[in-house]
Each structure stands twice: as structure tokens, then as C-alpha cells.
Amino acid sequence: IQDAVIELMKQGRVKFASGCSLSVSNEVIREIYANLDFFKDKILLRPQEISNNPEVARRLGLIAINTALEADIFGNINSTHVSGTRMMNGIGGSGDFTRSAMLSIFTTPSTAKDGKISAFVPMVSHLDHSEHSVKIIITEYGVADLRGKSPIERARCIIDNCVHPDYKPLLEEYLAMGIKGHTPQNLKCCFAFHEELAASGDMHNVDWSKYNK
Predict the structure, then answer these.
(1) How are beta strands 103-107 and 17-19 bridged, if at all?
(2) Residue 111 near residue 164, CB atoms below 8 Å
(3) Strands 136-139 vs 103-107: parallel, antiparallel or unpaired
(4) CA angle at residue 205 from 199 to 209, to 5 degrees?
(5) What tens digit of pLDDT does each residue of 78-115 get?
(6) What CA–CA distance (Å, rounded) separates 180 from 176?
(7) Angle between helices 26-34 and 3-10 (to 10 degrees)
(8) What tens digit of pLDDT does each residue of 139-151 get?
(9) Which DSSP letter does residue 78 get?
(10) How far is CA 15 from the centre of its chain?
């Protein structure tokens, strides 16, 4: 339970929060202690074995919303590692709820670093949540509802609805280059976005001809 949840409680938009810890700023924890009469019936802290229990989450029919660091066009999610190696944050409880929720949603800005990094790539460099657990992806450009779709249909839906316009042509080309099959990956090119970021600092510079030989 973080600062944003406490602010929503003050606004009357969140009535109750259950979790295993308060990870709030010093200013906010002081505010909570100073207003315990207001918060005491709005926050419940329990051991993680209860708050994150998959059976409880499933029984409640939760809608789980978590953050993606990176997603690929088939719906796999990287929540933790930049370029597959540098850890930005832990997985937290996202796995517990993604797999057990009635509806699992991931949100992410479509780009980072002034557009030099696309949040959507041909293949994630590290996998925390597989396509089988991810139902919906949302960016500032729209919503990709992946339920009931084949891998190719998921790719089409993500590119059309969530990818930044600058990167749509590159990902369209990648999808067209994919090896014929259920999931049309191209193993020569699937990490080209990451390799170009390491080489030039900008994923815009991907040239498929360098990889697809």
C-alpha cells in the first residue's frame, strides 16, 4: 500500500485496502498516525500468506492491475529487469495476483527515455508473467484485450492499440518476418531492439537487414 492509495482514500475514491505492508513515504506515515480515526477502518495489514493467498484472490474474483517494464507483441511481460540483466525492482506480489485474479491487467507507458526505448519489443529480455496469465495490456494509446486470441491475433491487437506510432512499422515488419508457425518468432531478430539500445542508445535505429541474414 503506497502513497497513491492513501491519497485516493483521502479523496474518497478508495474505501478500503488490504495488504501485507505500508510502503509509504515518511510524510504520509506521519499523516496516517496523526489521523488514525480516519484510516483505522480503511486499512487492513495481514501476513503475506493471507493477503497474497492465491485461493483467496481467486475466490474474491479480483481485478489485478500491475505495471510492466516491458512487454512483447505476444503478451509476455517483463516486470523486473532492464535489458534482461539490470534489476529495476522486484516482482512483488504481482505473480500471486496475475495468475489468480479473475482479470489480470498490465499497464505501461508506450516508451521511455524520451522515446528511445519502446516498452513493446519482439521478445521480452526477461519473463516474469507469461502470455497465458496476461489478459489485458494498457498504454496511453489504448487497450489490448488479449482474451481468446491466438498469438498472431494478440500481436495484431497489441501493435494496433498499444504501441507508440514510431515503433509500429518496425514491429509490423518483425511480425511479417516471423517463421511460419503458431507463434511467428524470428530468432535472428527477436532481440534486435535490445541490441540496438546497447549499441546506439536508441531503439529507433533498428535495421532488420543487419539481423535477418
Answers:
(1) unpaired
(2) yes
(3) parallel
(4) 95
(5) 999 998 889 888 777 787 888 888 999 999 999 999 99
(6) 9
(7) 40
(8) 999 999 999 999 9
(9) E
(10) 25
